[in-house]
Amino acid sequence: MEGIVVKSTGSWIIVRLQDGTRLDCKLKGQFRMQDIKHTNPVAIGDKVHVEHLPGDSHGMITQIETRDNYIIRKATKLSKVSHIIAANLDHAYLIATLAQPRTSNGFIDRFLVTAAAYYIPASIIFNKIDLYDEPLLNALDVLSNIYENAGYRCYRTSATRGDGVAGIRDLLEGKVSLFSGHSGAGKSALIKAIDPALNPRVGILSAMHQKGMHTTTFAEMYELANHGFIVDTPGIKEFGLIDFEKTEIHRCFPEMDRLLPFCQYKNCSHTHEPGCEVKAGLETGSVSVLRYNSYLSILNDS
Fold it and tell me: Is 71 helix (H, G, I), strand (E, B) or coil?
């Protein structure tokens, strides 16, 4: 039987079979040792082959198909290098907020860079706009312009009021989409607004620190009524990048990649070279200082 991994609890891997039923599965031991670079040998979104265990209602994953793409982050456990968040994605959406709790532009940029590195189209959904006062709305206009000029689509939603929800629902139709972001950004509430039949756990904010209380324990793929799928991830505090060569990072900034052919040197790092078109863009405003500083930060961490 063939299916897609929709949830992994550590003990069990839940596979959605082609007929829509779900089967609790174990993973063959050989797969646990094949790719020790990652904490999880099988990820949400993996296409797998399973067979029923003799005399048991559970299944065994016997084959993991080659992934079209996947998105990773640094593992929290020091014994491993990385954690695969999800695989075989059509699009990755970062759920961000400017209020309660604020998503930093550094976090946004590291998410976008990782998605670009693994060939996953990405967009930003600015959620909780019902909480924005006029200064925050003005700040959102500025930030949205920066990212849209870089080449990313930005959307505005309110899970509680319903603003923008119908538009996001249409974008997800027939697609496998990742929702990621900080705890408290409203991922689960937005999923429930998109499809009220779903019941993801919706968290609350810590009154003392205005940070999201961790509610989603495991990543899970939800099936939408419009034949789309959403991968809801646990809230991520930091998005640590791995396996990046310094010479590749600027290629993951679309606005810089577009300018590289006009630099004096074809291997320009956009830091110290003469005749750098990116640095010239900083002077004219065609390249955002905010984005450039994120580029330098990622470059220094690599």
Answer: strand
